[in-house]
Fold this protein.
Amino acid sequence: MRVPWPVVVVLVVAAALEAAWAAGSGLNVVVVVNQNSSNSLQLANAYCERRAVPPQNVFRMTSWTGGTLLWSRAEFETNLRDPLLAMVASRGLTNQADYVLLSMDIPFSVVDSDSVNSTTSALFYGFKYNSSAAPGLPSTCSLPDSSSNSYCYSELPFRAAPPDTATTNSFLAMMLTDTTVAGAQSILDRGAAGDSTFPTQAVYLAKTSDAARNVRYVTFDNAVFDGRVLGNCPLARLTTDGTGFTNLLGLETGLAVESFPTNAFAPGAIADTLTSYAGLIFGDSLGQTPLLAFLNAGAAGSYGTVTEPCNYLQKFPDPLDYIYQLRGFSLAEAYYQSVQNPFEGLMVGEPLSAPFARPGTADWSSLTNGAGLRGQEPLGVVFFAAATNLPFGAADLFVDGTFLETVTNVPPAAGNLVTVTLGGFTVNYTVPTNATAASVAAGLADALNGQTNVTRVQAHPYGDRLELDSLDLTSAGSNLLLSVSAAAGSAPYLTTLVTAARPAFLDTIASGYHYMLVSNTPAVGDWLQLTVTKTNGIAFSFAATNTSATATIGQLVESLLGQLNAEPALQSADGVYSLDYFDYDAYGQPAVEFYLYAGSPGWPASQIQVAVTASSNLLVVPAGLSRLDDNLSDLQPRNHLFVGAGVSALPLNFTLDTTMLPDGFHRLTAVAYEGSSVRTQTAISRDVCIQNTALAAAFTLLSGGANTDLGATLGFSVVANTNNVNTIELFSTGGSLGVISNQPAAAFSVAGTNLGLGLHPFYAVVAASGGAQYRTETKWIRLLGPEPPFTVSITSPPATLSWPATAGRSYDVLSSTNLQGLFQVQTSLIPSNGTAVWTDTNAELSPRFYRVRTSN
């Protein structure tokens, strides 16, 4: 790691919920599979089954055979980006595809000239080129303006705030991979297992002894403070190089080499380290621990750079990712909101994992599974929020996994009145027209800041959240009371919700500090002087003079700080000490940086004044008198306000024009979204049959069964009830499998190996010459690998054997007249469905014993 220079309440009992998803679901994920990798196929199928990803959301990358390490920008765009964008557009997924999941055996880095990006970041906001790096550093140690991520810190729904430097569609892209399929499957399972479990395990923010890699510690206090204000804070700061943790919900550290027990992390955990090459997940990671170590130890997601980044804070996750996760955001949302410049960073794990999402419940009024629909069908569904502060703000309808329409939006109603009382002083805000939760938060912040001279509180809006900071140094936060309310005002109804994190402001546990840099090579006679003035006015002065022609600036500074730390009068709670010393001499730069810390936590203690002066040959930054409050925002008492939009009970009545859909079998899915930036999803589905015309078709499985051998060839028959047919098309995972034109009947053969191990849906669409269409029922078939143990049943006479079989798999039937003797193969057979039957027509009268095995 090289270091740079520095509306209506409906009383109805909800039915059991079919599915409840966090801010994003399988409906919103495009799964990318490398068609040339059986591992990629198998993992993608497992992901689709676990997360209910519609089959049309699978993109098959067919032409890549170049390995898993890297590809050129041209190869990336030709094989993945461009066909992916075309697929999203052609399948009508533009309004719903927010996530991209790369299913192993896909290159993790993209290279063009001297610039290296991760594949996930290139899908997130496009390929970024290096700008000029500092002298003596590699070109990858740059921070180009174009690489800034505007989605970072936004606390907005991803669709409302995609990165503004993206040149095409932007996706929350993550790679799901490991050295084995089983390992990658475990990452998926742990990520999904953590959903909505509201874990209480700790998150450790570890400051290590590795000065070049522990630089994120300056961001720890802010995240810890936010977590304490939220009231469910699992974040804890600690100073350690240890890695023998167990059952953590998260870990943010900075070490080059680490090892963890297999149970280091709880389901849904986020964990990473700040080091140069953690993103080199395969091949040579140059002696550093790759991010897969965190995932293999139980984490659901991790991050690492794929090239030398230098230790820019902007290139690594801010610990606020844990705050976003606490709010209910998904893992991918939390990560991408926490990295300002992620172009060199690889994100690996389960993007939908959301341990703190709180979905509601729902019921499809009178619509039952299998209901027949025709014409203009009135439908009703009602959603109930999990809590009054988690209202529903919108609802969509999906048909067969594809977005059809927005059923309703419930924005903040124009004229609603929001009232905030701070320390007895009241500020009112009226919601304008065309408002959103975020715009109300911004407007409310402006209203509060217009009264700062009275309230002594500053408001900072972040999406739908306001951070409130006390500006009153003389009063503890516990003395500053906060109350909020919302009323309908001039609107006919109330759909604006404002809640406070706590009734009074919270005081900090952080200590104030001041950063200093001293540089240049000292000559004989050069000197440094440090003056410290305590809050009681007592001053102390320390000096160091260079007497050696070979002395370094580091030695001179160490002498000065040694005197400071040895002064007994400054070792008390109202004192000051130096820490976090770093000498750049090892990097060829005559410079030293260090921090001066207040002896106790809190804003008042940070009012100690310090100044470092120097002879003219030496440079001190910053110059002049300063207080120990560089981290002022971490010291001021703090509170939060949250703005929401919608209602806690959302009854919807709407009409579905079934004539716009093919006749036949469909799944209707209603999805309601939390009226906050988190937008946790609550969804419920019904399977229905539409019949507006006489068109119909019979869909038959000719060969294969519910369980079929991967090596088998599946056979399907589709027969329409009319001769006027334009096309018959078969669909499964990944889209169309084949089309037959101008025939009323069609037979399709599908090689199981083209689809891979796992569960697959199969259905057909018949298009008649008059424009009518019919969609058949869906047949679900699981393609299996090696056979698990099975039980054989026998009846007689004659001896008839039967057993649960995998269609398309070959079985040997063996027999013997002596249980201890040699068994001989009597026959081999390949069942065409899920039950195998064989009768021994040549059985002798003497006792005979049988065995059945899969053929070699």
About this structure: Residues 793-854 form one domain. Residues 73-90 form the longest helix (18 residues).
